[in-house]
């Protein structure tokens, strides 16, 4: 799936939260700064960004383990479900090292508060993408020029105390559901941040506005969406 596929079949409005100077660079240069997924599993002081499950490929709950056997050059270790204090996290390098660009997504009208206040910890400002499809087209083109592959998609949220199975870069614990996240995942990954210059986005983005006022500036209610002719 290319970076543009998600915008073709449903309502998708994207916002980027962050510091004012970074969002100015996004508008004027089209600069996308993308950290590797494993970077977010190691953050400790940033409550909205840190996620110990980030970069995992699979999680297995203790109750779903029959018997766990690990064989290495040091010998074999066997454990029973009762021996585990939490889920087993399996991380493949291809997943953990891929780079990610995160945005807030609106996929349907919201008649209450659009942006949960917990998102205000992402920075002091926000930018609204005025033409989602064109934005994704430009990102996709820049990725190809840079020799990179990109997948775009909405994040699915799961109960990290019950879910056993695949996780990957497009799944996060339900405690982060308030972030309503859309991601661009870049392959091949790099252990260092990837900086991609898309080119000026001034023509398809709003001005940089105070994040504290985001719910005052934006109205994506059912009535407003219908008046605008939006479909969802």
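-> sequence recovered:
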């Amino acid at each position: 799936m290319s970076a543009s596929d998600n915008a073709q079949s449903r309502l998708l409005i994207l916002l980027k939260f962050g510091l004012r100077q970074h969002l100015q660079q996004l508008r004027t240069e089209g600069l996308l700064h993308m950290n590797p997924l494993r970077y977010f599993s190691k953050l400790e002081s940033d409550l909205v960004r840190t996620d110990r499950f980030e970069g995992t490929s699979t999680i297995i709950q203790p109750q779903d383990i029959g018997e766990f056997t690990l064989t290495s050059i040091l010998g074999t270790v066997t454990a029973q479900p009762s021996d585990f204090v939490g889920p087993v996290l399996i991380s493949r390098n291809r997943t953990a090292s891929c780079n990610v660009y995160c945005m807030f997504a609106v996929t349907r009208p919201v008649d209450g508060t659009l942006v949960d206040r917990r998102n205000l910890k992402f920075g002091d400002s926000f930018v609204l993408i005025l033409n989602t499809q064109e934005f994704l087209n430009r990102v996709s083109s820049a990725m190809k020029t840079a020799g990179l592959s990109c997948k775009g998609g909405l994040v699915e949220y799961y109960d990290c105390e019950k879910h056993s199975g695949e996780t990957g870069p497009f799944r996060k614990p339900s405690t982060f559901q308030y972030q309503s996240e859309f991601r661009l995942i870049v392959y091949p990954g790099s252990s260092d941040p990837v900086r991609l210059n898309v080119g000026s986005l001034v023509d398809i983005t709003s001005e940089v506005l105070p994040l504290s006022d985001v719910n005052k500036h934006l109205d994506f209610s059912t009535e407003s969406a219908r008046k605008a002719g939006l479909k969802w």
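The longest strand covers residues 99-106.
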